[in-house]
Design goal:
Strand content: 15-25%
Distance between the termini: 20 Å
Number of helices: 10
Strand order of the largest sheet: 3-2-1-7-8-9
Helix content: 25-40%
Bound molecules: 2'-O-acetyl adenosine-5-diphosphoribose
Structural class: alpha/beta
Length: about 250
């Protein structure tokens, strides 16, 4: 990371009225939560299709829940890191700041983030798999570990599922609309995401088309590195603190 890149980014952020940030798993790496891709990535150990699709759940709900129960246990022990804290402070102090996340871990919320769009849902919410009348809308469930796997719907006795977006499922149209609207901004930051999964990754290009200055913060090269205006090579929890933008 060069001080010149940091200086340029800080200047842009200071002068911006509307800022939108897209975050991915890398933002939670310093909290001890594994990312999906890369060296120790979750998808190197297990195949996404066997755990994060509706077909996988229909086939073996207990196996899918064991994996989510394990992740919930790990996340429950984790705390927000300085990257979450800086971003949360920006949302509180700057009215034109929006945070769009692909993360389901809830750490942005725990850091006190305002105006958060959760594109992929939350690992702390569940809903009825059969979409029964009273269980169709998701509700919070913080129980770790679950006393029974798979957990039963309290309304109909059927299965409940994590209220996250699985591969092959659509994002909530309201979330897409909010995230897309937030792309009409002066500065767009993409932080800690491999920028591979759409539609989230498309937001970067959308913002650029609307004239935003685009900045990436990531220690590694990503799909977006070649198309952003400024790529800062570094860890989110270090770069965001060093930016020092109030
Ligand atoms: P990935 O695991 O694909 O990418 C994580 C990114 O974080 C990589 O580009 C790393 O280089 C970067 N990274 C690692 N440590 C970092 C740090 N300390 N600071 C900054 N960056 C760091 O995670 P996502 O891009 O979030 O979807 O993955 C997108 C979606 O794919 C996820 O939401 C999930 C997954 O399958 C669903 O579950 C639907």
């Amino acid at each position: 990371m060069t001080s010149d890149a940091l200086r340029r980014a800080a200047e842009r952020l200071r002068g911006a009225e509307r800022i939108n940030v897209l975050t991915g798993a890398g933002v939670s790496a310093a909290s001890g939560i594994p990312t999906f891709r890369g060296g120790n990535g979750l998808w190197n150990k297990v195949r996404a299709e066997t755990l994060a699709t509706p077909e996988a759940f229909a086939n073996d709900p207990r196996l899918v829940w064991e994996w989510y129960d394990w992740r919930r246990g790990m996340i429950a022990k984790a705390s927000p890191n300085p990257a979450h804290d800086v971003l949360a402070r920006w949302t509180r102090e700057r009215p034109g700041f929006t945070l769009v996340t692909q993360n389901v871990d809830g750490l942005h919320e725990r850091a006190g983030t305002e105006r958060l769009v959760r594109l992929h849902g939350s690992i702390w919410r569940v809903r009825c798999w059969q979409a029964c009348a009273r269980g169709r809308n998701d509700w919070e469930d913080l129980t770790v570990p679950q006393p029974r796997l798979p957990p039963a719907c309290p309304h109909c006795g059927g299965l409940v599922r994590p209220a996250v977006v699985w591969f092959g499922e659509s994002l909530d149209p309201a979330d897409i609309a909010a995230a897309t609207a937030a792309c009409r901004c002066d500065v767009f930051l993409t932080i800690g995401t491999s920028a591979i999964v759409y539609p989230a990754a498309g937001l970067i290009h959308h913002a650029k088309r609307h004239g935003a200055f685009t900045i990436e913060i990531n220690p590694d090269e990503t799909e977006a590195s070649g198309s952003v205006d400024l790529a800062i090579k570094g860890r989110a929890e270090e770069v965001l603190v060093q930016l020092g933008v109030g």
